[in-house]
Design brief:
Structural class of chain B: mainly beta
Number of domains of chain A: 2
Helix content of chain B: under 10%
Distance between the termini of chain A: 58 Å
Structural class of chain A: alpha+beta
Mean pLDDT of chain A: 84
Number of helices of chain B: 0
Radius of gyration of chain A: 21 Å
Radius of gyration of chain B: 16 Å
Mean pLDDT of chain B: 93
CATH topology of the largest domain in chain A: Immunoglobulin-like
CATH architecture of chain B: Sandwich
Helix content of chain A: 10-25%
Oligomer: heterodimer
CATH superfamily of chain B: Immunoglobulins
Order of helices and strands of chain B: EEEEEEEE
Number of helices of chain A: 3
CATH architecture of the largest domain in chain A: Sandwich
Low-confidence stretches of chain A: none
Strand content of chain B: over 45%
Shape of chain A: elongated
Shape of chain B: elongated
CATH superfamily of the largest domain in chain A: SoxY domain
Chain lengths: ~150, ~110
């Protein structure tokens, strides 16, 4: 009997340890959105709706120095309805605005692929400014094993 | 000297959406690194790149230190007429680069 109760106690402690780190992580995420101030600066306070923008990156990047990224926006890309610009924002880079791409109806397709530098595991937000003046956004999460910016690389 | 490579389909039908790719050899210095004697290496990135198709701007990129070294870009353009795509870029130190590629549009 004694052995079982000890084992149960160990299991309970281990389960507690496993669950513990999740709690502050969730709480931190529920707090202020790190993108809020940036978005305000970018859009001048206009509403940014979620959707229509897709950010495609590998879920796990071994090396933060060069992470392939494709951003695409659902848009017919006609003279009347097209994407004016797409801005890529990083949650943890020292300079959060990574790039802005200006497109137009002559692009035919609202999609840009590049390679970005990432200072650690983070979320990336792409904001599209459409010809009707509205803003749309899409997000991706990348886990970075070896961060850029920390070493001499 | 800056080296760059542009890839375009050699020919396309009028109105077809074509894929345009460009890779430029450039260190894209972030300004956060130090040289061997401990001095900060100044930031030097290609901050602007413009693509013109027969003289008309079809794509423009403003880039920062968040773009990887040897920047690569892939985007799209509608093939309208035979001619050329001309790329022009400038970095923080004022160095300019250009590259061009021909495209023929068939009816």
């Amino acid at each position: 009997m004694r052995t079982i109760s000890t084992r149960r106690r160990i299991i309970a402690v281990l389960a507690g340890l496993a669950a513990a780190p999740l709690l502050p992580f969730r709480a931190a995420r529920a707090q202020a959105d790190p993108f809020a101030a940036l978005l305000k600066q970018l859009t001048g306070g206009a509403t940014v709706r979620h959707g229509r923008v897709t950010v495609d990156t590998p879920r796990l990047a071994d090396n933060g120095h060069s992470v392939p990224l494709t951003v695409s926006v659902e848009s017919p890309m006609t003279a009347a309805d097209h994407v004016r610009s797409i801005t890529l924002l990083s949650e943890r880079n020292p300079r959060p605005i990574m790039a802005t791409y200006h497109l137009g109806p002559k692009a035919g397709r609202a999609e840009v692929t590049t390679r970005v530098r990432l200072n650690g595991t983070q979320r990336l937000l792409a904001v599209a400014h459409l010809s009707d003046g509205s803003y749309w956004s899409g997000m991706a999460e990348v886990e970075v094993t070896e961060s850029a910016c920390l070493d001499m690389g | 000297m800056t080296l760059a490579r542009v890839q375009l389909p050699a020919s396309a039908k009028r109105g077809e959406v074509i894929e345009v790719r460009i890779a430029i050899q450039h260190p894209m210095e972030t300004g956060f690194r130090f040289d061997i004697s401990g001095r900060a290496i100044p930031k030097n990135v290609i901050n602007q790149l413009v693509c013109r198709y027969n003289g008309v701007e079809v794509f423009r990129a403003e880039m920062g230190s968040g773009i990887a070294a040897n920047p690569y870009l892939q985007f799209y353009a509608v093939a309208e007429a035979s001619g050329e795509m001309a790329f022009e870029w400038i970095d923080d130190s004022g160095n300019r680069g250009t590259e061009r590629a021909a495209i023929s549009v068939i009816e």
